[in-house]
Amino acid sequence: MSLAKLIYSGPRSLVGIWKLDEPEEFFTIALSPFLRSNSPHTTIQHPQRRKEWLAGRFLIKTLMEQHNLPFSGTWTDEYDKPHLLKSQGYITISHAKPYVAAMVNLNSPCGIDVERYREKLSYLAPKFLTEKEQALAGGNLRNLAILWSAKEALYKLYGKRSLIFRENLHISDINFNENLGAFQGKIETKEARMKVTMFFRAQEEHVLVYTG
């Protein structure tokens, strides 16, 4: 597994993205002290998805160990959201072949998403974007990928399945003319209203978005 980039390292959060090119056995061996017999990966039938699950946990382990933070494994809640086991802090993981991305935040819930520029996003746009957000994207596939990833990252931060992307998640103050930048995300439900500072990095085929 080759580290593509340590995106951010600060006093409370770490963000990394890796290129996945090792066999599954590499991760099962490296994670063997931390995998339980009923680990969720044992129920994943698709080999690539199983490897991505393992790689995400390996990346979390690597980020924490690089910064002298204890790692004892992870557990997954009823919403499939990963958590650190026996360690303080919050984690989030994403993957889009051939990359795996992860974030550790020591103080608050977080969200991350890596996404390929897929044609599918063009016809999905009316389902996950408001009319204002569609106009903001201007039909540009790169812009649509950024907005999709932004809403995925917000969804992961919230940590429950009750959100509707078009109705509950909103993006504003974003400048698509740059390849990296900050913008605002908002979660609005009957139970909660939350404003979130977010960041994006766009490359030739992928975009990475994560919460502040």
Tag the structure with descriptive keywords:
212 residues, alpha+beta, Ribosomal Protein L22, Chain A, 2 domains, four-stranded antiparallel beta sheet, 11 strands, 33% strand
Descriptive notes:
The strands form three sheets. The chain has a five-stranded antiparallel β-sheet with strand order 7-11-10-9-8. The model has no long low-confidence stretch (mean pLDDT 92). Strand 5 (90-96) and strand 6 form a beta hairpin. It has helices spanning 24-31, 47-66, 120-128, 131-137, 141-158, 165-168; strands at residues 2-9, 13-19, 74-76, 82-84, 90-96, 99-105, 112-116, 169-172, 180-188, 193-202, 206-211. Helix content is 31%, strand content 33%. It is built from six helices and eleven strands. By secondary structure, it is α+β, with helices and mostly antiparallel strands. It folds into two domains: 2-110, 4'-phosphopantetheinyl transferase domain (Ribosomal Protein L22, Chain A, Alpha-Beta Complex); 116-211, no CATH class. Helix 1 packs across helix 2 (47-66) and helix 3 (120-128) crosses helix 5 (141-158). It is globular, with a radius of gyration of 17 Å.
Layout of helices and strands, plus pairs?
Elements: E1 2-9, E2 13-19, H1 24-31, H2 47-66, E3 74-76, E4 82-84, E5 90-96, E6 99-105, E7 112-116, H3 120-128, H4 131-137, H5 141-158, H6 165-168, E8 169-172, E9 180-188, E10 193-202, E11 206-211
Antiparallel strand pairs: 1-2, 2-6, 3-4, 5-6, 7-11, 8-9, 9-10, 10-11
In short:
Helix content is 31%, strand content 33%. The protein is an alpha+beta fold. It folds into two domains: 2-110, Alpha-Beta Complex (Ribosomal Protein L22, Chain A), CATH 3.90.470; 116-211, no CATH class.
